[in-house]
Amino acid sequence: MSHHIVEVKNLRHVYSDGTVAIKDISFIITHGESVGIIGANGAGKSTLLQHLNGCLEPTSGSIHIGHTPLSKGTLPDIRRTVGMVFQEPDDQLFMPTVFDDVAFGPLNLGFSPADVEERVADVLKLVGAEHLRDKPPYHLSGGEKKRVAIATVLSMSPDILVMDEPTNGLDPFARRQLMQLLRDFKHTRIFTSHDLDMVLELCERVIVLHEGEVFADGSALEIFNNEKLLSECRLEKPLSMQGCPVCGITC
Q1: How far apart are CA 99 and CA 118, in angstroms?
Q2: pTM for the complete prediction?
Q3: Which of 108, 117, 167, 213 has the fewest CB atoms within 10 Å around its CB?
Q4: Which architecture, in CATH terms, is 2-241?
């Protein structure tokens, strides 16, 4: 389905203080791929993700979703296709109750009240947050806010799911729930994470950013077995690929 393709071409972003965050980045992600974007702090991961649904405007270069260029005129359509979950849930929770936050997107797409009610109930159940429905978001824990933020995006039925550090603030049980949710998502998944075990488990492909550039792009196993590459980018193997410090046996 060509309208689900993400094409980034010669993308560059310079912040107002002169910081060059990303430099001449190009790649294509096709429908159904699960892609992890990894790199050390400051590599440009979050900046890159914020371009994929127009939260940031490129200094130069272009982004296409399918054959549609991302621009101010196409932004509403792009955001219906590309669902973005920010690293900090407070950046996208702003309504009086959880229900209102999750219902906001479908209501603005013109769904009937009955359809909105059904969508909200379905996605809150999916993320294990049914009991939070009537609570104010500012009363929630960090992990609860994260689940609700994910629900606000899923309620829009995106074809491309983009997530910045999705497991930040989650306890082990909530992390497992999220990973199962991502496994069940049938379309394109793109996310950044320092949780490299999650990346290894969920992603067939990994893009490594280093100092604002694409340093490597290949299969997850190929990338994580390249110790020289990981060292140059200030990364380490996922814990599941590291040998026991006592006996040397890999898990």
Answers
A1: 11
A2: 0.89
A3: 108
A4: 3-Layer(aba) Sandwich (3.40)
